[in-house]
């Protein structure tokens, strides 16, 4: 009896102590020298530019690494009242689509231009997910200079990935949709009427201008992500697919049934030959092509009407399917181009495929079957090996150029480092929390700079001072130069970053445009000096040709405008010096300010709604007399005969 | 009068020819630095025009009521090309004459020219720095903004530098050659013609 009492007591103590036995979790220690590794002293520059997608803000963030400092928010697919993007007359056409003006999109992925599989960082490409488009950003001005809409596509997620010398940028559709004339169909006719189109957009070597070269009509799967082959696999492109079940409702369940989906391998060199040989079919499709002209400082939107489509059911040797376990998300090719890594987000292993084995399997017709006449390769014939027990929910893989791969694990909220050749797991670190994409400088290219890695997380919770229900998304910077990954920095980001790329700052920092030459300003409303400042009336349109230079507008007293007139302020910033933008805003305008760079002309349209005196002023603190940089515009009632008058500095 | 050695005569010729680069190189430079202009603003004065950040300097200086700098501000630009031409011609003349007096005369002429340039620069700088618009936005009691003639000077938030540029340095080198010729000539024992 006594013995039992002791046992009970011991049991009670054990229960009481149990909580202290909870295994150590995510609050992993940060070692002492982390701060000095991310410290960029005042006046010093970061080593890398990090071009980060903004997700649902439709913009791009430009971040410095290793400091994690945000350098700029660069408007792409969403209006940006901060600098008039999408509000000024010159920029509005950039956001035009076949659906008209679209002020927002969801920007997921970044591709930095490459030559021979190395970053040249001339341009950044970005995708619009919702209303399918691809944008090109000039990295000497950090400005969106081109946007092309993708026809026959919906949910442009598998985009904008590029070939190794930026020959093509691709756009695979997430949603398969009916196309052509037969689009008003019942949703349950999915299998016969829906198509998954993959677009190849050619990029001009010199100008970077994009041109929708051809589309491949693929089966109605969901296309998720993609990577071009590089070096030895140059000429091929790999697309991950899910919902090969071809479900159209409750995909959460119905698209997760098969043990294996596919990585679709496309021989684009072969496709190019078929295009040259005239094997494609021209089909009607409306999509816009918007270009920014830096000479006129304005955009043009052109409606395109045709697209060339290749049918891989007939052209049998351009599309092959590699079985890949459980709804692969990322498909990534290693720096040599030999290995293709499929990250099955519901899979317990990470399959690594061999390009050499794939070619042999195609050569030997080592097929397990066909899909609509397109060969499905045998899994084992293409497999290099599987990474065992990597973690839960593998999503994306980046490379350090030293033979290692780094895979993000969404469900187990960690990053796993493993050796590509041996498939051994070498290290793992926690992320905070639920990591999505990873980014290593040069990571997707043939020449990674294996020094840092950034994890972009989907959940933030308690990482920073709380800000109500909506939180910033968190990112972590790791030092990956040693055997073990080391957490250096935890920082909040803008929007919801998905993919990002980084490259050495030295590639572009000395090529930055500092201001626009006023003599070369070809905007039809540009002024070359203060003498030409004037106001002209054309019917009910009033054109104000205005100059801004420290610290005045010319003209700054305007009369003779009536309620209901369409007033256009064409403001030219005459400054010819770096970092002297001028702003322009007028009371009651139903639009955003203009932010005009030195040497540039921007136009604001304003329709005054009432009579009175309307002040306008410079919104960018430009000089010691910035607060004096202002003017008045008099609005008279509709039909008034107030004389048109304008002046600067005249006192009666 | 005493004839010059061949080498001394050649030195006169070189000094005369070294005036020619004045047509293609800047003669004077003025630089300004401020906290907002860590990279500096630089203006170069050539034989007949200005170059560099003239517009930015004007933009900054209009607040304190300084005149707008422009080519029209320098009447020297209309005749300096001829003055320089005459100097080259006289230098070649001195070489051809080859007498001691021609060397001395050319040296004195060049020195006077240099002095005249400095006086002219000072006169311009004084005018530019003192002749301020009474309606200027920023007025500092008792403050004038005359740039330094040669060297550095602090003017409000700016540090100003003024000094000779490439063309002048070449010219000064030529004058140095003339001095060398004079010294050589003084110490020559006989009229030994080399």
Measure the end-to-end span of chain A.
113 Å
Major beta sheet summary of chain B: 5 strands, antiparallel
State the secondary-structure class of chain A: mainly beta
Number of distinct beta strands of chain A: 45
Share in helix of chain B: 40-55%
**Morphology call of chain B:** elongated
**What does the average pLDDT of chain A come to?**
95
User: How many beta-strand segments of chain B?
Assistant: 5
Q: State the helix count of chain B.
A: 5
Radius of gyration of chain A, in Å, reads 29 Å
Strands of the widest sheet of chain A, in order across it, are 6-7-8-9-17-18-13-12-11-10
What summary fits the major beta sheet of chain A?
A: 10 strands, mixed
Arrangement of strands in the largest sheet of chain B: 3-2-1-5-4
Strand content of chain A: 35-45%
Structural class of chain B: alpha+beta
* Major interchain interface with per-chain residue totals: A-B, 9 and 7 residues
Question: Can you count the helices of chain A?
Answer: 7
Q: Multimeric state of these chains?
A: heterodimer
């Amino acid at each position: 009896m006594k013995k039992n009492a002791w046992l009970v007591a011991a049991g009670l103590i054990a229960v009481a102590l149990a909580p202290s036995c909870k295994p150590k979790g995510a609050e992993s220690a940060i070692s002492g020298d982390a701060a000095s590794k991310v410290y960029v002293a005042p006046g010093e520059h970061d080593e890398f530019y990090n071009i980060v997608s903004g997700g649902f803000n439709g913009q791009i963030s430009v971040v410095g690494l290793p400091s994690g400092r945000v350098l700029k928010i660069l408007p792409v697919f969403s209006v940006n009242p901060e600098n008039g993007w999408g509000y000024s007359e010159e920029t509005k056409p950039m956001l035009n689509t076949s659906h008209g003006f679209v002020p927002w999109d969801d920007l997921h992925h970044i591709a930095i231009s490459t030559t021979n599989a190395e970053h040249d960082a001339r341009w950044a490409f970005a995708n619009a997910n919702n209303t399918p488009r691809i944008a090109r950003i000039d990295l000497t001005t950090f400005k969106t200079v081109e946007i092309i809409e993708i026809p026959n596509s919906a949910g442009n997620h598998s985009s904008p990935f590029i070939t190794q010398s930026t020959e093509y940028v691709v756009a695979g559709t997430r949603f398969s949709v009916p196309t052509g004339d037969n689009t008003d169909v019942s949703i349950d006719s999915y299998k016969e009427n829906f198509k998954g189109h993959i677009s190849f957009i050619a990029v001009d070597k010199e100008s970077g201008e994009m041109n929708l070269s051809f589309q491949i009509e693929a089966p109605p799967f969901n296309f998720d992500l993609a990577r071009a082959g590089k070096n030895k696999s140059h000429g091929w492109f790999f697309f991950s697919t899910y919902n090969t079940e071809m479900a159209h409702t409750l995909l959460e369940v119905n698209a997760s049934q098969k043990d294996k989906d596919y990585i679709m391998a496309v021989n684009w060199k072969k496709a190019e030959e078929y295009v040259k040989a005239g094997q494609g079919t021209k089909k009607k499709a409306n999509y816009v092509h918007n270009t920014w002209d830096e000479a006129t400082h304005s955009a043009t939107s052109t409606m395109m009407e045709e697209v060339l489509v290749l049918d891989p059911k007939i052209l049998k040797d351009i599309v092959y399917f590699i079985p890949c376990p459980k709804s692969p998300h990322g498909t990534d090719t290693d720096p040599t181009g030999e290995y293709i890594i499929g990250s099955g987000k519901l899979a317990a292993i990470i399959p690594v495929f061999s390009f050499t084995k794939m070619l042999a399997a195609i050569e030997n017709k080592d097929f397990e079957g066909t899909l609509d006449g397109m060969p499905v390769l045998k899994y084992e014939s293409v497999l290099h090996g599987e990474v065992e027990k990597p973690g839960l929910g593998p999503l994306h893989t980046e490379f350090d150029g030293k033979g290692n791969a780094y895979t993000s694990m969404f469900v187990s909220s960690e990053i796993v480092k493993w050796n590509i050749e041996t498939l051994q797991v070498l290290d793992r670190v926690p992320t905070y929390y639920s990591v999505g994409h990873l980014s290593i400088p040069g990571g997707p290219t043939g020449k990674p700079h294996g020094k840092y890695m950034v994890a972009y997380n989907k959940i933030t919770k308690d990482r920073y001072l709380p800000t109500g229900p909506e939180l910033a998304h968190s990112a972590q910077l790791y030092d990956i130069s040693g055997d073990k990954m080391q957490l250096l920095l935890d920082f909040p980001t803008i929007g919801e970053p998905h993919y990002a790329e980084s490259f050495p700052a030295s590639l572009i920092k000395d090529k930055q445009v500092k201001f626009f030459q006023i003599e070369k300003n070809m905007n039809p409303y540009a002024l070359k000096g203060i003498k030409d400042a004037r106001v002209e009336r054309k019917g009910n349109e009033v054109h104000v040709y205005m100059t801004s230079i420290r610290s005045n507008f010319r003209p700054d007293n305007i009369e003779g405008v009536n309620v209901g007139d369409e007033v256009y302020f064409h403001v030219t910033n005459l400054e010819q010096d770096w970092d002297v933008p001028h702003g322009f805003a007028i009371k009651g305008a139903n639009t955003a300010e203009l932010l005009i760079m030195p040497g540039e002309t921007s136009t604001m349209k304003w329709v005054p709604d009432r009579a009175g005196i309307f002040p306008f002023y410079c919104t960018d603190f430009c000089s010691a007399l910035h607060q004096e940089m202002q003017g008045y515009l008099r609005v008279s009632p509709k039909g008034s005969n107030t004389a048109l008058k304008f002046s600067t500095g005249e006192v009666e | 009068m005493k004839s010059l050695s061949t080498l001394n005569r050649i030195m006169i010729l070189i000094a005369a020819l070294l005036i020619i680069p004045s047509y293609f190189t800047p003669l004077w430079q003025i630089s300004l630095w401020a906290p907002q202009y860590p990279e500096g603003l630089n203006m170069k004065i050539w034989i007949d025009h200005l170059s560099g950040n003239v517009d930015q300097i004007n933009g900054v200086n209009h607040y304190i009521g300084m005149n707008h700098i422009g080519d029209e501000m320098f009447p020297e630009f209309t005749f300096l090309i001829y003055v320089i031409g005459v100097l080259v011609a006289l230098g070649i003349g001195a070489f051809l004459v080859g007498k001691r007096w021609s060397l001395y005369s050319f040296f004195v002429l060049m020195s006077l020219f240099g002095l005249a340039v400095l006086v002219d620069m000072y006169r311009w700088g004084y005018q530019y720095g003192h002749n301020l618009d009474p309606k200027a936005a920023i007025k500092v009691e008792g403050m004038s903004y005359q740039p330094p003639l040669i060297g550095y000077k602090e003017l409000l938030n700016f540090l100003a530098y003024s000094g000779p540029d490439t063309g002048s340095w070449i010219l000064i080198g030529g004058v140095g050659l003339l001095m060398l010729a004079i010294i050589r000539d003084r110490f020559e024992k006989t009229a030994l013609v080399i």
